[in-house]
Structure formats: structure tokens, C-alpha cells
Amino acid sequence: MRGYGKCRGLGQPSMVCCVCEVAGLFPVVGKRSVARMGIAEDIAGDWQASLAALAWQVDLGVTEVLGDAPTNRYEASVKPVVIPVPVGVVQTPPVVQAAGELVGEPVGDAVAAAQAAAASAGSLTALRAALAAFDHCEIKRGARNLVFADGLPGARVLVLGEAPGVEEDKEGRPFVGRAGQMLDRMFAAIGLSRGADDPAHALYITNVMPWRPPQNRDPERAEIAMMRPFVERHVALADPQVIVLMGNTSCAALLGEQGITKLRGVWTMALGRPVLPMLHPAYLLRQPAMKRETWADLLSLQARLRG
Hints:
Blueprint: E1 6-7, H1 18-23, E2 28-29, H2 34-37, H3 39-43, H4 47-59, E3 95-96, E4 102-103, H5 107-119, H6 124-132, H7 139-142, E5 149-151, E6 157-161, H8 166-171, H9 178-188, E7 203-207, H10 221-238, E8 242-246, H11 248-255, H12 260-263, E9 268-270, E10 273-278, H13 281-286, H14 291-306
Parallel strand pairs: 6-7, 6-8, 8-10
Antiparallel strand pairs: 1-2, 3-4, 5-7, 9-10
Helix pairs in contact: 5-10, 10-11
């Protein structure tokens, strides 16, 4: 924070927020201008610095972009942006997916690239490197870290989550926030832990998406399709006896279905292994009354492992 005035982005009553003006999101009025300080010029050509500035605002709770005057969206005209194409270059039209998203690169090409990259990985270390080098998923551009896995490879139980959140993105490990603490307590109740050295009592934890989606949104179908080859290879290399699917995204990836409240607790098969869908710990934090159903699912898992 520098200068004087009022920041309408973060609501500071007496100070100018450098980040707000640099990012160009919130007009700031005061005695000193951030632009005149040279900060805007310092990061103008650095998208990572600009992204970090924006992420800082989001962490502080900024949710709306405000202007000086209200805009009538019904009267606003949309002007298409025309990008000139060099002579002799054949432009591939974008593909509209069934979910409605517009993707510049055909999803089939990205899936094929993912299949080739995943198949070439002969170890978990190589698979991590292949994911780190995979540039076809736009989510990667806004994430801080690759979130690969945690726990013991070779554990009897593999937990497949959905996507990293804020804390996971910072630390580069899955399930480390409040939902992760809930997950640890859940499995500790039946004698399983990600920190155990014995495969019989250990967990191996990973996600469908290795990068945090913007604003923690749900991954789109095209994004899940890109990551499925990596998930399949991950399961093959970790070689668990049982897979626990935490939430809708993991069910969509391996079962092709969603509706976790109906799917939970029902054993099925995927990738040649027994699979148990369960409610995501984040859901349990919002709906504590559903812990009873989750306890029943944990007992079912315990019985399966004992049998």
C-alpha cells in the first residue's frame, strides 16, 4: 500500500492500493499516482508479476471489478476482435465442445498428446515430469505449483480427489487444507494414514487435475478428458488394490457419471479395480449431517480390506 486516497477495490479508506491501480482493475483517486511511481511500468511486460498482483487481491477477498460509472449491459455492443492471419497460413477453426466451452485447440489433439506422454512414463517420477511438461491444459498457466501426489506409492488404497485448492496450490501437495485435515481424520478412524510406511495401513493420494482451476471452479469435461490418460497411468504405476473416488470430478473421470450423493457407498469397477465413490471432505464441511453416510462408507471400505 502506498500514497493517499481511497481504493475502491479493497475498500481501504485512506490509502492508495498500488496493486489495484497497477492491475488496472480499480480506479484510484489520490494525491499520488501509482503510474507516476513507475510501478505499472515495472510489471507491464511481466504477466507473472501481474498475475501475482491479481492473486494477492483475490486472497484479500476481492470478488468484483468496479468502474467509475455503472454499465448497461443490455445496451453495450460487442465488437468482435479480428486477428489478422498471415498470408498462406491456414487457420484452424476453434472447436465448440458439448459442454459449451470454446477451445482454441481441438480437444482430441490434446487428449492424444496426453495419451502419448502418459504412455511413455515408466515410473511415477517420469509421470510427474510428463505432467510438468504438458502444456495443452490452460489451467496450468494460472496455477502456482503442480500438485502430483502424497502418501505411499504401492499403498492398498488410492484416494483420487478432484482438483487442488488454494492451500494445495501453495504447498504442491493434495489435501492439505481444511478438507485435507478432515480426510486424514476420516481414514485414521479405520487405521489408514498417508504417513504410514506399511502398504496395508497407508494411503496414496492424488487428484484428477494436478493444477488448481481458477477461482476453484469445477473442471470442465474437456479438461477432465485431457487428464484421464495421466490418471490411468498413475493408477497403473501406483498399483493400488482399491480406489476411493472423492467427489463428482473423480467419478466423472473414471466412471463417466456424476451425482455423488447417489453414487456414494456403491462399489463398482474401474480400470480393473474395485472402486468406492465417497463424499468429498469439503462437502462434509458444508454438510456435517452427511458424516453418518461417510462413516458407513468407511466401514464398508474397512470390511473390503479385511475380506
